[in-house]
Amino acid sequence: MKCFLLRFAQCRLLAILLTLPATAFSADIYVSKTGSDQNPGTKEKPLATISAAQIKIRNIHEPVTVFLRAGSYFLSKPIIFTPQDSRRAGQEATFKAFPGEKVVISGAAEIPVKWSVYKGNIQKATVAGNFLFDQLFIDGQKLRMARYPNYDSTASHFGGYAADVLSPSKIKSWKNPEGAYIHALHKHEWGDYHYVVKGKSADTLQLEGGYQNNRQMGMHDKYRFIENVLEELDAPGEWFFDKKTKTLYLYPPANIDLKTAKILSPQIKHLFEFRGTATSPVRNIHLEGFEFAHTLRTFMDTKEPLLRSDWAIYRGGAVVLEGTEQVSVNRCYFNAVGGNGVFFSNYNRKSEVSGCHFDNIGASAVCFVGDPAAVRSPSFEYHESVAYEKLDKTPGPKTNNYPADCKVYDNLMQGLGQVEKQVAGVQISMSMDITVSHNTIYNIPRSGINVSEGTWGGHIIEFNDVFNTVQETGDHGSFNSWGRDRYWHPDREVMDKLAAAHPELILLDAGKTIIIRNNRFRCDHGWDIDLDDGSSNYHIYNNVCLNGGLKLREGFKRIVENNIMINNSFHPHVWFAESGDVFRKNIVTKPYFPIQIKSWGEEVDYNLFPDQNGLEKSQANKTDAHSLAGDPMFVDAESGNYQVKPGGPALKVGFVNFPMDQFGVVSPELKAKAAKVPLPKLNVLDDGQAAKEISWLGGKLRNVNGLGDRSAYGLPDEKGVVLENAAESSILARAGLKKGDVIRSLNKRNIDNVTELLDVFQEVNWMGEGEIEFFRNQQLEKRALPFK
């Protein structure tokens, strides 16, 4: 009987234990800078390295947390997780910073140096050992390679640029520039080029590189600079390393004490890698709470062309995920890493990046890029095409070797593209069903969110706050996409015929609808939402566009409804016949800006215009039969609440209010760090009359007002816009305009008043530069005017 009762009690205990949550069985392993890999890994006797903890937990078949105690962990090679490290559901492994302690995962080595005076303010030190010198950090401060021109935080591109970088006289001034780098924008500002100097002969440099853009047109003739040249070491905070003599030269910043300063130089490109496959993935491992820092720049490795685009990519980042399932990177800080932040390459399922802060990093924050071999009939360069007879006409992907069902949620992304300019907060290519939600993205040279080609759709882009974008490139938007899928042909006439004869081709790749909803976008140098060449199968609704409006270039089956466009409008460009496009129940605050539109899609109607003139222009094109004109009656535009008041005319055409307080990051710590979007001043006054004065490109401008102005400025009539003042650092002042200049035309379009100036500017600002005519001293002058 006693034996029976004992067995009964054991069974009861086992049953109770099986009902407890998995965390009740969780194990903890500890790693510390003061530990030893001979220790058991307890809190009292921690391990010393992450690698030792990685091996130890392979034999722990229950949920496990590896706590790293405070300190900087310097890696000489990446931590690589393979299928051998994979965990079963309910047995997850989390590598985590100990609560309340700062843990830095660094790819740098500490450089021992002894300084002596070189000349003037410049110090030098001989470096023992074989270290890479790509970036230099002194006491946590990132310094710059010796460069020409010197760094200028107010410059519009590259922190300073000069057209004469490759001039014979400049090249002659450098004794031995081998190992220097030329950085330049693409000629059309679609991205960037980078070259390493292999040597020089007389006044010519031998360059290697220039493959970073997939639409080759050569470097920009103005936006470029050179770095890593000894003769250019002439400003505080610059440095140069002579590889041959292993001598480090430094012009120290004023706030650095070289006697005690710690010098770090990155040595590796990646910190963590997850390396599995579709058939043998790495599962259920999480990284949480770390600061990632000090990785090498990767601009010379950006070589792989993406499908039919101007993009090239490097499949790497501080954290690389390839062949994963349910792997996550949570609440981590990516601090000035040299390349991409997180890179999802090929097969990944249900993995995510959440709660992270990406700050001043070299390239993109998060990238999803699938396997080109998974694409049917792929083409890689813009002008490539596959003949209809040779096309694989099976819908969808060929294999499952691509990211799908992954998430980017609640991340703060700022100051991206510090080195590379063809970047995004989130880049998506050859992927499916990616959710990009509640991210705040700003201060970026290109687009905040970029969807490359239509393979294979299904993405949800929602509740993001994206602004201060397209700051150094051109012809993009805060959201940017293109299609260029199997039906695409570089000859528009051929493509029109192909799409008309074989409409079944259109959605072979873009088979699942991409949803863009409940976002707030602001782009001052392009469009807020830019659907470019061939972007198809989109549903865009409940978005606030604060400045650049919404552009639909040629594509198919786009439904755009219930959006608000502040100080701008709808930009339909070169649509296909029978596109199936819909634009309805939107609020626009300018007339449409169509370019070469012969067919207006399935429906353009039930929209609200700011005035009768704009409405009548659209109705002349046989659209907007049921649309209305009038004051949208926003609740509180000054504070960013663009919901409309009861009785507003927008409600009469079917517009429905949506929340205005759910954009961007949601976690309190990221909210506290995130900048606020700059809200625009409405360019229409409350009484419906056109504005009489504006702020534009850093200047204050007003309408010409009466005969007094005509006489004072020597004008032939009472038309134009007077520049009242402009700060020295403003775009207008840097372009040579002065107080009292009267603007008369922009890009050969007559300007009668400030409203017309803004209307024309909204049409052309994506070009990055225009031609302005103005009166000065009673003479008409012309001048090139950059827009950034």
TrEMBL record:
Top-level lineage group: Bacteria
Signal peptide location: 1-26
Keyword Signal belongs to the record: yes
Keyword Signal annotated: yes
SMART domains listed in its UniProt record: PbH1
Annotated keywords: Signal
Entry-linked InterPro entries: PbH1, PDZ_sf, Pectin_lyas_fold, Pectin_lyase_fold/virulence
Protein name (record): Peptide-binding protein
Organism whose genome encodes this protein: Dyadobacter luticola
